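Q: Structure for this?
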Amino acid sequence: MKRIASFGAFLALSLAPPAACAHAFLDHAIPAVGGAVATAPKEVRMYFTQPLEPAFSGATLRGADGRTIATGAATVDRQNPMELVIKLPPLPAGHYKVEWQVVSVDTHRTEGSFAFDVGP
Amino acid sequence: MNFLRVGASATMLAALPTLLAPPDAFAHGFAGDRFFPATLLTDDPFVADEMSLPTFTINPPGSDGSREFDLGADISKRLTPDLGVTISDRWEHLRPAGMPSVSGLGTLDTQLDWQFFKNGPHEATAMVGVDTSWGHTGRVQALGADDFTTVSPLLDFGKGFGDLPDGLPWLRPFAITGNLSADFPTKSESNGNPNPNNFNYGFAFEYSLPYLQQNVKDIGLPDPFRWMIPLVEASFSTALNRGQGGRTVGTIQPGVIWSGPYFQIGAEAIIPATRQTGHGYGAIVQLHFYLDDILPNSFGRPLFGD
């Protein structure tokens, strides 16, 4: 019975959202993945499923032509270590792609990308 | 929880050497943005530190009316970031038509794999290996476990379609994995029955809802659906010789995999694809643990070269 209870506790812990380690996946972002915003955002905020290692987590912004757009350095939010933020320059209307790569605090590396549109 | 705090601190200390250099070991089934789950029927095209425990199978009724239930387990371990081994076995319970039931261990199976190719931008991965089913490791007389060893060189591959043009967004979550292998039994017959060489081929067609949410379009899927990967697996084995040439057995298995931080749960229906395979339906359910996430600084790492 004790073993069953322990296994049940393990399952409950695993099913609970954000735990202390494991791979970090993108939970959601602002602007939203594949979304469109009427006015240019001043930053992109990415919320992950695990705490991030700031030294090895970053993101790049590209325009519709694939060229890299200079942004502020990607930073992990001090209040929420599962949040990665990049400050943006003024963006004209267009199609943009965010490419992120992060390392969770247990050293697992993941990467991903998503696009968003700016314009009416 | 104190346990987690202590664990996190210990994790960070142990991780320091790795953090001093850019890490490049993904573990799991990653290729670029793509995460390939561990499939239930077909082989995974990547090496990993993972464990399936248990895999419960209700097989479709055999062509002779027999029923078989299996309780299986397997464990995979990376020796280096690209080289891994897998050991698997299962407990079988057979109910022959009109005869008493019998139970026992099936044939022990081992596999050595080398993941020789990975392309992140194109979400592609490939692996070669050698699978060995060891004779006389199961209950031969009662259950029909192999009394001979079979060596099977194999090629596994995986390809995600995230590199499709932006104009095809709803197709980008698709992925396919596949296996090709050939069986070379060390004995041409057992108890008068031929042991032919077989050509084996299998595929898994996956539609990743996590990929859709994270890389294509956040459609606001709630838990647990946002972590689900519907899939259809199919696997076939065609005999090549010894009077069995052309005889094909195989199954088609539609189902779904839910993937969480530490484990995944998969369930599939089993549909015989040929008359020789059997008739009726079966089912398979599997609990699969990601040991690289559960034990990231011990068993969950490659033994060498990480």
